[in-house]
Design brief:
The complex is a heterodimer of chains A (136) and B (393). With 136 residues, chain A is of the alpha+beta class. Chain A is 41% helix and 20% strand. The radius of gyration of chain A is 16 Å and the shape is elongated. Chain B is an alpha/beta fold. In chain B, helix 7 links the parallel strand 5 and strand 6. Classes of the chains: A alpha+beta (136), B alpha/beta (393). The structure holds pyridoxal-5'-phosphate (PLP) and zinc ion.
């Protein structure tokens, strides 16, 4: 068995799975070669991640690391969450087979896209309400 | 929890009768078959008997059997052996694109040694067209090597016809029959075979022992040199317990062939039909009819094969997959590629391979579980949801 107990636990009982209908931001990251795909949904308030969920098409490592990643970002500020990378996810999972560390790369990437989406939505809703951002 | 073993093309459980037959050659008659004393005589007699049993099982003469360390070595001895011994006659080999790596990588090695190799394409259900074999033959061709049955998708080739074409053109015909023994009635003379590779652990014998049938008069160069055992084709002190186990296992597989095939076929058909009907977004890889009695190979939409295999293992079913994950640590199966399945679809492949030891009750238990597991993995996968949205739009 190439995976440790912790990875298997997150694979068989992933946390925070599923579509979030009322998300504040949604991000996707894919690996076009093999069709791996991770979608991250965010609920944000005052720059703090209040809620997060994911959907993953990929191997067991990709599913387990998506699950762990969502656990790690929950309750953190966006800024702190953006510093979490694949290495940190692998460490939190108490190690991954060397050739599987790459499989954890999509969740952080999808997360950055979700943050981007959140910022754009916020900006356009501010505009709609006649509020202009300082830098303009 | 009870574990159900559905990975018999990887390896099989040793039949208790085989293990029993092997035992005395570990601790009682442990002699070297070349020795003059009684220990040696016992070993040598056991060797002769195993050779006879092996020959009987495939319809050859005893002297045409060479014992080796397994399927890989047998394939290497056949292909390299013919190539290097017949260099004067030619330098071209014909094989297929979806052979086992024991054949493919041997051919690739020979290309680095100045040989030319034609890798014939296979059809979308995994058949080698005998006409293509005919067309590929040149004046420089010395050997045709086409596997009897594919280890991943189970397609059974027209060995007799391809062998016949080879012989009509004065060529040697080798077949990797590693997956065929115990599942197909093979006869080297009727089937026009000059070299046949087999491996004991695929038919309830021990690991690390195999055999190569070499038709009398066939010129081969050995891979290893030494004390001249196995008529000089495979030097090294014979693995007597292993060879005895191979002999016993192949004899049993021949004696019980009909009943084993009938049993495996009915379990396999239940698995194939039950999966295709019970699970949406699922297709069969390979040929529905020209297929090994023990092989089922599916692809499931929207999920990954490794996740599928691991989840089935957690539920007590040992299976395998031809999937390669995004890390690209492993290549997607060259067999699935050869039948034209793109790596994205090869992702969701699942191979179930049976033995005589599997039952209908196990098939029913699997059918319950596969539905549950596929549903769970699809509920995690965004692809199922996204394609529904696309379909609806
Ligand atoms: C078709 C085929 N050829 C060759 C081999 C290699 O046999 P062995 O493991 O005995 O070397 C295998 C086993 O995986 C096989 O399935
Ligand atoms: Zn992966």
């Amino acid at each position: 068995m190439p995976y440790n107990r912790k990875v298997m636990e997150h694979f068989t009982q992933p946390r925070n799975v599923g579509e979030m209908k009322d998300a504040d931001g949604v991000g996707k990251a894919s690996n076009n070669v093999d069709g791996d795909l991770v979608v991250i949904y965010l609920k944000v308030k005052d720059e703090i991640i209040q809620g997060v969920s994911f959907q993953t098409f990929g191997c067991a490592a990709a599913i387990a690391s998506s699950s762990m990643f969502t656990e790690m970002v929950k309750g953190k500020s966006i800024e702190a969450a953006q510093r979490i990378d694949k290495q940190m996810v692998a460490e939190a999972l108490e190690g991954m087979p060397a050739n599987k560390v790459e499989c954890s790369i999509l969740a952080p990437e999808a997360f950055r896209q979700a943050v981007e989406d959140y910022r754009q939505r916020k900006e356009s809703s501010l505009r709609k309400n006649g509020v202009y951002l300082a830098k303009e | 929890m009870e574990h159900i073993y559905f990975d018999n093309s990887a390896t099989t459980r040793v039949d208790p009768r085989v293990a029993e037959a092997m035992m005395p050659y570990f601790d009682k008659w442990y002699g070297n078959a070349s020795s003059l004393h009684s220990f040696g005589r016992e070993a040598s007699e056991a060797l002769d008997e195993a050779r006879e049993r092996t020959a009987n099982a495939i319809g050859s003469k005893s002297q045409e059997i060479v014992f080796t360390s397994g399927g890989t070595e047998s394939d290497n001895l056949a292909i390299q052996g013919v190539a290097f011994a017949n260099r004067d006659a030619g330098d071209h080999i014909i094989t297929s694109a979806f052979e086992h790596h024991a054949v493919l990588n041997t051919c690739r090695f020979l290309e680095t040694q100045g040989f030319r190799v034609t890798y014939l394409p296979v059809t979308s259900v995994g058949m080698v067209d005998p006409e293509l074999v005919k067309e590929a033959i040149t004046k420089r061709t010395i050997l045709v090597s086409i596997m009897t049955a594919n280890n991943e998708i189970g397609t059974v080739q027209n060995v007799r016809e391809i062998g016949g074409i080879s012989h009509d053109n004065g060529l040697l015909f080798h077949t990797d029959a590693v997956q065929g023994i115990g599942k197909l009635p093979l006869e080297v003379n009727k089937d026009n075979i000059d070299l046949l590779a087999l491996s004991a652990h695929k038919f309830h014998g021990p690991k690390g022992v195999g055999a190569l049938f070499v038709r009398k008069g066939t010129n081969l160069r050995p891979l290893v040199y030494g004390g001249g055992q196995e008529r000089g084709l495979r030097s090294s002190t014979e693995n007597i317990p292993g060879i005895v186990g191979l002999g016993k296992a192949i004899e049993l597989s021949k004696l019980e062939l009909e009943e084993n095939v009938a049993r495996m076929t009915s379990v396999r058909d239940r698995i194939i039909d039950g999966t295709l009907v019970g699970v949406t977004g699922c297709r069969l890889n390979g040929h529905r009819v020209r297929r090994l009695c023990n092989n089922a190979n599916f692809r499931f939409d929207y999920i990954d094969g490794e996740a599928l295999v691991l989840n089935l293992d957690v539920k007590g079913f040992a299976t395998s997959t031809g999937s390669a994950c995004s890390a690209r640590s492993t290549e997607a199966s060259h067999v699935l590629k050869a039948i034209g399945i793109e790596s994205e679809h090869a992702r969701g492949s699942l191979r179930i391979t049976l033995s005589k030891m599997n039952s209908m009750a196990e098939a029913e238990a699997y059918l319950e579980t596969i539905k549950e597991v596929v549903t769970r993995l699809r509920s995690i996968s965004p692809v199922a949801m996204l394609s529904k949205q696309e379909g609806g739009a």
